[in-house]
Write a structure and sequence with these properties.
alpha+beta, two-stranded antiparallel ribbon, single chain
């Protein structure tokens, strides 16, 4: 495939040999929404989590520990995803199981105590041997899971001609030897991750955790170039967009050897920059100056007086400037178009994130794995079936809701004890019928409504409730309804 985003004949470095979109491996294994998610979290990874979690459970609870199985783990993950769908990641876990204001599907899946127990003892490695492995690997507590997960990312999706490399921040304020402070990020404190994403779909194609300075204590030299080369291993014919932390003349040369091109902003203190491009003296606003070599192109643009923006490119070969009022060089327009791949991933995963409050950094990384896996699964699923919920603006929320319900369904169907709340109890009974999907679709009609409103029988008191009368559909609080969720007026 030829990169057709720019005019002119494509160079050798911009001829892509892979077809953008889901790979044949992924397309042949996706039958439904749940299977698209399991592309990234297969049973091989879940099996390691189960083994290590049960090992920790026996260590903490002894002979009283009841081993969890794959159904329990998938239901736990499903509840985390559903909490993200309901935008309840910052809400107290107890309130999600509340009889009146909570969601019936949480009580129908498992008890609050069981959810807290799994959250407490979930592990990703053997705690007894961790101290030995940690001497040479700061990521030892989750290394096995992380590496297996990252290996699967490029196997499922081929990025388009434009790829973005940037940093992400997994918010975390607990104790960690490689926690960083980035004041420009909303969370400010957390674990930094290098990421390579498809600029168009924001599919996470490769990731790497930043673990701080090396054991020698000396800062790593040419870190930006090393990160880009690591993140783009396996790509050929693509154009890499990155910011001024990564961009350098040496990086452009190394990428050209791999048949890759580069566009990125440049810091003004780079020694390879000509002095004429750095100085703003005598420069008019909206003016541009170009410099060319055999392989690189530099542009110095003045968006306003005494301010300058410098970009470097190995794909642009002319001094093309747009005809719009700001007279921006086409190099800057291409950069602005493709620089947001990783930022969009952060925004989209943060909207319905499943992260919960935790003091353990491996759990924070595990929540990030779930968020990115769910988003990648959505990209793969919608690429395979473009007609799915076509025309709806909230497709991703519907995808996550269906995914969470599909993960909790097996545990609800085999549950032996019926919950006490009417809505959750009726959901469990209906899930034991041959039509679990229809039962889940009818969830808001089982005595609880998704929205909370004022009780009509408590006026003038302002009592909010999510219970609705099964006969007149009026909002009634717990004090004015019986066990069958019927208001006293209709009883």
């Amino acid at each position: 495939m030829v990169n057709s985003t720019r005019l002119g004949r494509a160079r050798v470095e911009n001829i892509i040999k892979m077809t953008p979109g889901p790979t044949r491996y992924a397309a042949s294994r996706v039958d439904d929404i749940k299977s698209s998610f399991q592309l990234f979290l297969p049973e091989s990874i879940e099996g390691i989590i189960l083994e290590m979690t049960n090992l920790e459970g026996k260590r903490v609870f002894g002979d009283t520990w009841r081993e969890i199985d794959l159904v329990d783990l998938q239901a736990y993950i499903g509840l985390l995803i559903l909490a993200g769908v309901y935008r309840s990641n910052d809400e107290a876990t107890k309130s999600l199981w509340d009889e009146e204001s909570g969601r019936p599907i949480f009580r129908a899946t498992m008890s609050l105590q069981q959810f807290h127990v799994i959250s407490r003892i979930i592990r990703f490695d053997n705690r007894d041997t961790r101290s030995i492995r940690w001497r040479n690997d700061k990521l030892a507590a989750i290394r096995n899971i992380w590496d297996k997960w990252v290996e699967r990312l490029p196997l499922m999706y081929n990025p388009g001609p434009e790829v973005t490399v940037d940093e992400r921040l997994v918010t975390f304020r607990g104790r960690s030897s490689f926690k960083v402070y980035i004041p420009s990020k909303p969370g400010k404190y957390g674990i930094k991750i290098w990421a390579a994403c498809d600029a168009k779909s924001s599919y996470a194609w490769n990731m790497q955790v930043y673990m701080g300075k090396p054991s020698t204590g000396r800062a790593e030299k040419n870190q930006g170039m090393r990160v880009v080369l690591d993140m783009t291993t396996g790509l050929q014919g693509h154009n890499i967009t990155c910011d001024n932390f990564f961009t350098s003349h040496a990086l452009g040369q190394e990428l050209l050897k791999r048949k890759l091109t580069m566009v990125g902003t440049v810091r003004k203190n780079k020694p390879e920059l000509p002095p004429a491009l750095v100085s703003t003296r005598g420069r008019q606003a909206l003016s541009s100056q170009f410099a060319f070599t055999d392989t690189h192109t530099l542009v110095s643009y003045v968006p306003k007086k005494n301010k300058i923006v410098i970009l470097m490119s190995t794909v642009h070969k002319d001094a093309a400037v747009s005809t719009t009022e700001d007279r921006k060089p086409l190099m800057i327009q291409d950069y602005n178009k493709n620089k947001v791949g990783v930022d969009c991933l952060d925004k989209l995963t943060g909207t319905y994130t499943c992260k919960r409050m935790t003091a353990r950094w491996p759990v924070a990384l595990f929540h990030n794995i779930l968020d990115v896996s769910a988003f990648n699964a959505y990209v793969v699923w919608t690429a395979i079936d473009p007609t799915w919920n076509q025309g709806k603006s909230f497709k991703r929320r519907l995808f996550l809701a269906d995914l969470g319900k599909a993960l909790v369904t097996p545990l609800i169907q085999r549950r032996q004890h019926i919950p006490r709340t009417p809505a959750s109890a009726s959901l469990v009974r209906s899930m034991r019928t041959p039509a679990p999907a229809a039962a889940l679709a009818a969830l808001p009609q089982q005595g609880h409504c998704q929205k909370r409103k004022r009780c009509g029988l408590c006026a003038p008191r302002d009592i909010k409730t999510s219970l609705t009368c099964c006969k007149c559909n009026a909002y009634v609080c717990k004090a004015h309804s019986d066990l069958s969720v019927t208001c006293h007026s209709c009883a």
